[in-house]
Design goal:
The complex is a heterodimer of chains A (206) and B (100).
Chain A (H helix, E strand, L loop, with lengths): L9 H24 L4 H11 L2 H12 L4 H22 L7 H8 L4 H9 L4 H26 L11 H13 L6 H29 L1
Helix pairs in contact in A: 1-2, 1-3, 1-7, 1-8, 2-7, 3-4, 6-7
Chain B lengths: L2 H21 L7 H24 E2 L2 E2 L3 H14 L4 H18 L1
The chains are: A mainly alpha (206), B mainly alpha (100).
């Protein structure tokens, strides 16, 4: 029997937190390798807290790009969080301080968990956000301290676990007809174009 | 000296996240805006899934990740629990990589 107060989405929240935690480790390793200090690396994960933006920014730093370019690359990838902000806005806490705090965890995973749990969007959003925040930052600290002694997480297939977890959360929502249309109308031409260039790319590599 | 990257990026990232929740705080969110963002979010997520599955830096590639996500799609269709979907995807990708 599940413990008292256990919510059905806690399992998914913890699983997604652990997956991102492993990527947090690789972020910590790469960030220190790019030349950031342990303190800067941890501050990045605590304050920026958007995985894709962080990887983009340290990528520019690693290739000796200008700080402005690193910030611009990070912000470009963070723009989608503004769209998530509009989506989650109606069910965030109303009082100012909890509301401002909860905006920090507006990311892919928490938004996807909220979408997947229409009966308790707020609870699922907070559970996902807190879980990812805790594991992502613990992973970052561990990776930054441990350095390059840690293997590549893709050896364990974790790079596939990430899109798979988003798919598991979002796919059931696509049974909603208007959501399917919204996805296909702008998305289909891009997908077709992408598939069209795929054979060329593969041929080039072979 | 990389604080000149960390701090502006932190401020900018937070501003992007907080834009919607602080503008729409009074519950003044219009129906149209809510509807558009509700449709935009799954579309963004599907695009993100495609990028994470096929992108290698600036090109696209079909590799072990595609196998993992393909198995995940089957598992989602068969309505397996979330954790099973994620574990199957990782195990498939790891197995394909180990064998190839």
């Amino acid at each position: 029997m599940p413990p008292c107060g256990w919510k059905p989405y806690f399992g998914a929240a913890i699983a997604i937190g652990i997956t991102t935690g492993v990527f947090g480790i690789s972020f910590g390793v790469l960030s220190v390798a790019a030349g950031l200090s342990v303190a800067e690396t941890c501050a990045m994960s605590l304050l920026v807290f958007t995985g894709a933006s962080q990887f983009a920014a340290i990528g520019v730093v690693a290739s000796a790009g200008a700080p402005v370019a690193a910030v611009a690359a990070g912000l470009l990838l963070g723009v989608r969080n503004a769209a998530y902000g509009l989506t989650v806005s109606p069910f965030l806490p109303r009082r100012l301080v909890p509301r401002v705090l909860s905006t920090q965890v507006i990311i892919d995973e928490s938004t996807a968990l909220a979408l997947a749990n229409p009966d308790d969007k707020t609870g699922a959003f907070i559970a996902g956000g807190v879980s990812v925040f805790v594991f992502w930052n613990l992973g970052t600290l561990f990776g930054a301290l441990a350095g390059s002694g840690i293997g590549d997480p893709s050896r364990f297939g974790l790079d596939a676990a990430f899109p798979a977890s988003l798919l598991a959360l979002v796919a059931p929502r696509l049974r909603d007809r208007s959501a399917v249309r919204a996805f296909l109308q702008p998305g289909l031409p891009i997908i077709v174009a992408g598939l069209a260039i795929l054979p060329g790319l593969i041929g080039e590599r072979a | 000296m990389t604080w000149t990257v960390v701090l502006p990026l932190a401020v900018g990232s937070f501003a992007l996240k907080a834009l919607g929740p602080l503008l729409l705080r009074g519950g003044s969110s219009t129906d149209v805006l809510t509807k558009v963002s509700a449709l935009l979010t799954p579309a963004l997520m599907m695009a993100l899934i495609a990028v994470q599955t096929f992108a290698v830096e600036r090109s696209l590639q079909v590799d072990a990740r595609a196998a993992g996500v393909g198995v995940a799609a089957l598992a989602v269709w068969r309505r397996l629990p979330f954790v099973a979907v994620v574990v199957l995807a990782a195990a498939t990708a790891a197995a394909v990589r180990a064998l190839s």
